[in-house]
Amino acid sequence: MATKPAEIRPTSARDILLTVRAAVYEWTLRTDALVWGANAADVLGLPGFDRIATGSRFDALLDPETPEGRADAIRATANTDGGQGVPYRATYRLRLNGPDSPALAIEDVGRWFADARGRPERAQGLIRVLDQSCAEAAKETVGSRYDVLTGQLERSQFLAAVQAALPAMGRGRKPAAFLIAAIDGLAELNETFGSEIGDRMIAEAAHRIRAELRAGDLIGRLSGNRFGLLIMDCNDKALTVVGERFAAAVRRSLVDTRSGPLGLSVSLGGLCIAKRDTDLEAIVTAAERALAAGRERRPGGFQAGSLSEAGHASAGDLELARSLGTALAAGTVGYLYQPCREAGGRRILSYRLVCSADPDPERIARVAATTGLSAALDLSALNRAVVDLAAEPSLRLSIQAMPEVLCDSRWTAVIRKRLARRPDMAGRLTIELPGRALTQLADTVREAIAEVRGLGIRIAATDFGRGPIDLAELRRLAPDSIELAGELVAQSAEDGATGLLAALAAMVRSLGAELTGDAVADAAAAIRLRALGASRMTGPFAGPGVADRPSPAPDPLSVPA
Q1: Rounded average pLDDT per 10-residue block, the chain, 561 residues
Q2: 469: helix, coil or strand?
Q3: Residues near 119 by Cβ (< 8 Å), separated by ≥ 6?
Q4: Which residues lie across from 218 on neighbouring strands?
Q5: What's the pTM value of the predicted model, to 2 decimals?
Q6: Can you list the domains of the chain with their CATH numbers?
Q7: What is the β-pairing status of strands 266-273 and 536-537?
C-alpha cells in the first residue's frame, strides 16, 4: 500500500516562503486590486500592505531605469489563454524609499487568465527577492531581451513574439495588425542638435506609442528610428483609425529638450494579418512598403497596405513613372490649378500648380523621387508657370520644389532669363519648399534661395508640424509664409492637439511669416484655421483644381463666422 506523502503545514509553507524571500499574489486588472499572501510585507520589508494594495501603487515603487514590470511582461505575451492561463516572467528592481534608496532585485513569475474577449483579466503569481549573484544573471538576461534606450523588446525578441502569435490567428482568433512606426527626420535631428537629442526623441516616441497600447499588444524597437507594433483584434475597418491614433499621440505636444521645445512625429505603415498570413518576412516587407509610400504621400500619418496588393502597387508605380517620363520628354505634362482662398473663404488669392498625372499628387512626388524624375518635374512646373504668368497678368501661382533643385543650372537659367527682367511676373510667383527638407541647408542652396527672393519671388515653407522643425534654419531663411499641415487642424477637435497648434502658430508669428493652411477639408477646419490667425487655405474646402488656366475673378465661398 502506497504511503501518502506528508503535507506541508500552512505555517511551514509560510516559513519556507519567508526563507526564500518569496510571496504570492493575485492581481485583478479591471479593478487594479492586488491581493498578497500574508508574508508579502515581511518579504519586502514594508510595515504593511497599503503601498502594494493595487497594481499602480506597486508600479510606483519600480526603479525608473527598470525596462519592464509585471504589466509589461503580461503585455509582451502574444499567446492565447486556452483555459490554463498564459505564463509570464519579469525581472525588475524596486526602490521602496525613493529613487536614491537601495534597490531590491525581484523575479516575478505567474500566469494571466483571459476574459471573454481574450484579454488579460487577472494574474496569479509569485515574487522572489534575488540575491546579488542571481540579480546580476537576471540583469544580463533582461538586457539581452530589451532595448536599453527605450525599454522595449529588442528586434529579435519582438519578431520572435510576433512569429509565435501567428499560429493563434489560424485557430479562430480575430485578425491582428502589424505596423511599423518611423520617427520623421531623425537623421536631421542628430545632425542639427546632436545624438543626445536624437536619443531623447527616440525614447519619447517609444513612451508615447506604448501609452496607447492595450493589454496583449506588443511593441519592439526594430532599428534606430523604427518600432514594430502588433495590435491584437484589429480588422481592416479599424486599421487606419488605429494607425492615425498612434500618429496623433506622438505629435500631440512638443518635446522639451536642452535645445528648446522640438516637434516630434512618426510615419506609420501597416497591414492586417489573418490566419493565412504566416510569412513574417513578407509581413514586415509589406509594412515597410506601406510606410515608404505613406512618408512620401503624407509624412506624419498612416498608410495601410496589404500582402496581396504589394506587387500591384509596384506595377502601378512603374506605369506612372513611365507615363511621367514620356510626358516630360515630350513636354506634354498635364497640370491642375488648385485654388488658394482667404481663410475666411471669400475670394481666391492664388493657385497652386500641380501635376495631374495621378489623382494623388503626393504619390506623384514619391514616384518621381524614387525614379530620379523630381528635378525634371520641378523644372517643367517652373516653365509652365512662366508661360501662364506671362499670358495672364493678374494670375498668381505657386509651384512646389525641393531646395536643392534651385541650384540646378537649368532652373537658374529659366529664373535669370525669363524672370529677372520681369518683376511683374516674379512678384506673382511663390516657390513652396517642404519644411522637412529645410534643415541644415548647404550654403549653395541658401544662396540660390536668396537669389530667387532678390527677384521678388516669394518663398513658402510647407508641411509645418508634420516632422522636426529647425527653427534656426527657418530664421535664416525667413520665408514669406509658412503652411500648417491641414490634417493637424482637422484632427485637433478629436485628439486634443489645440495646444500644439497654438504653439506652432506662435512659432510662425515669431518668425514674422504669414500663416497658411493646407488640406482644409470642411468649414469647421477652416474656422479653426482662421482662429489661429491664418490668412489663406488650400484643400478640398477651397475648391477643386481646374485644368484650364484660370482668369482670376472674385469667387465667394462663405464660411460661418
Answers
A1: 54 74 92 92 91 91 74 70 82 81 85 85 91 51 63 83 76 78 83 82 90 85 89 87 90 83 88 79 86 77 77 66 85 93 84 91 77 82 94 94 82 85 90 82 83 93 79 89 79 61 88 91 84 90 91 52 40
A2: coil
A3: 214, 215, 216
A4: 230
A5: 0.51
A6: 10-145 (3.30.450.310), 153-308 (3.30.70.270), 331-542 (3.20.20.450)
A7: unpaired
